[in-house]
Every structure is written in structure tokens, then in C-alpha cells.
Amino acid sequence: MLRSIATSTRRFATTNASAEKVWQVYLSGEIHSDWREVIAKGVESKQLPVICVSPNVSHEDSDDCGAIILGMEEMRTNWDKIGAGMNNIRTKNLIEESDIVVVRFGEKYRQWNAAFD
User: Fold this and answer.
1) Is residue 111 within 8 Å of 36, Cβ to Cβ?
2) Of all helices (H) and strands (E), which one includes residue 94?
3) What are phi and psi of 92, to 5 degrees?
4) What torsion, rounded to 10 degrees, do the Cα atoms 80, 85, 90, 94 define?
5) Which pLDDT score, from 0 to 100, does residue 83 have?
6) Are the C-beta atoms of 24 and 74 separated by less than 8 Å?
7) Of the candidates 80, 90, 73, 114, which has an alpha carbon nearest to the alpha carbon of residue 7?
């Protein structure tokens, strides 16, 4: 099961008694369906040595993260710019740390964020 942690990273890990590699998989793209949860449940049911991570899929949390972490801004333009910068740092780090990146493009919405990742 996926769980949210303080940084809104979605993670799932299977504990495995052996010393085999644990793969980190970044799940990017379409945010309007539960495809990430479906993958996480499959990983869990097969007890695979995988940690799934993803971008923050909550629009509100994503937009507001910079203002919440660094302090509220009076001008909304600055608020959005700070949030975008914070999300960019987080996304770059998660992708760089991942062994595999999976990108899903949805049919209904253009996936600009996934394309930029």
C-alpha cells in the first residue's frame, strides 16, 4: 500500500530477509487515475524488492509547498514560482536516485510535467 510521508513522496517497500537489491522506481505522469496504487499493490502482492516513488499528485500541496516550507508570500506569483522551484528540486532528486523511471501519458490531459521530468 502507498503511504504519504511528510514530503508527500509516495513510497512502498517490501521487507525482504535476503540481501537482494531493492529497486527504486519513479512513477511519473498522469495523475487523474489510480495507476500508481495499482502498481504498488502488484509490487506488494508479489513481494518484489521495490520502492515506488512519485511526484506530489495533490495540486494544492504541490502549489503551496514552497510557501509552506519557506514562509507565506504576499504575491501569488512569487508563491507559484517558489512552489515550482521546490517541486523541481524534489523531482530531480527522486529521478536521479531511481533505478527505473516509468512515465504514463493519459489520454484526457496533456502531461506537460511528465514531459519536462
Assistant:
1) no
2) helix 76-97
3) -60, -45
4) 110
5) 84
6) no
7) 90
Element (H, E) at 97: helix 76-97
pLDDT above 70 for 113? no
**pTM of the predicted protein model:** 0.72
- In 3D space, the residue among 52, 81, 50 whose CA is nearest the CA of residue 64 turns out to be 81
The amino acid occupying position 103 is V
pLDDT at 8 over 70: no
28 and 55 in contact (C-beta within 8 Å)? yes
Q: What is the pLDDT of residues 41-98, one digit of tens each?
A: 999 999 999 999 998 888 788 878 887 887 776 666 677 788 888 888 989 999 999 9
| 7 secondary structure, DSSP code | T
Helix (H, G, I), strand (E, B) or coil at 25: strand
